[in-house]
Description:
By secondary structure, this protein is of the alpha+beta class. The protein folds into two domains: 1-104, no CATH class; 148-237. It is built from eight helices and eight strands. It has helices spanning 13-21, 72-76, 80-85, 106-119, 124-167, 176-193, 201-220, 224-237, and strands at residues 11-12, 27-29, 36-38, 42-47, 50-54, 59-66, 88-91, 94-103. Strands 1, 2, 3, 6, 7 and 8 form a six-stranded antiparallel β-sheet that branches. The chain has a two-stranded antiparallel sheet with strand order 4-5. A hairpin with a 2-residue loop joins β4 (42-47) and β5 (50-54). The two termini are 22 Å apart. The mean pLDDT is 86.
Amino acid sequence: MAKRDPRHPALRGYQVWRWQKKGILEAEPLRETPILVVQKRTRVRLTPKYRTTISQGIFLVPRWIPAPKYELEKFLHLSTKELEAKGIIKRRDVLYLLIYQQVEDLSHLYRQQEHILFDGVRTQAFDLRIKPFIVRRREVAAGLGKQRAKQLQRIRVLQLVPLLGRLGIPEMPIPDWELKGIVHYLDNLICELEEIVERPLVTRRKRAQRSLRSAQRWVRERKFSLARKRLQKALQNLAWPK
């Protein structure tokens, strides 16, 4: 289970649905799982007096929990349809509430699923119905991590390192047409990095993009030594976190 963190409180299912419907919260499913990945940092209101920020790249992991006892009275008189609209289902006379836990990053997401998988009560229902979903979510988290690691390695080795080499050859002047090509090349690279929204990579990605934009400026001004320094900074930020 994700640790309780006042910065990342659990969110009610119906709140998440409402925010998505109104366009307040931009979140996309993680592959074919019900886990959501927040695409854009946003500020939301949990209660009339309390607001919180949902950061870009946070994972919203759905979980059904028994409805709080102090809320049971206001739920008991609702119809099945009204309960479902609030993210509540009834199973064997017990009301279960849908929440979304905010999980910090890919490694936390993987460990959370591992914890649920091996600490779950060993029942036939768990093994047949619940375990396959947990296994799949764990596989997706691990697979996405490997995919991003390969992507960053490709960008560093095949795209940035050759460009660094080209800017470091003073005896080969760069003509205007090639200069424009380098600027356009960096534009494409900055756009490609936009697809990386998962934490903890999102912070590194933004820093790398700032460095690449700075490198573009120095390239246009033909200050290639300064451009190389910014590209080296981008290389550092695009290294896979240990």
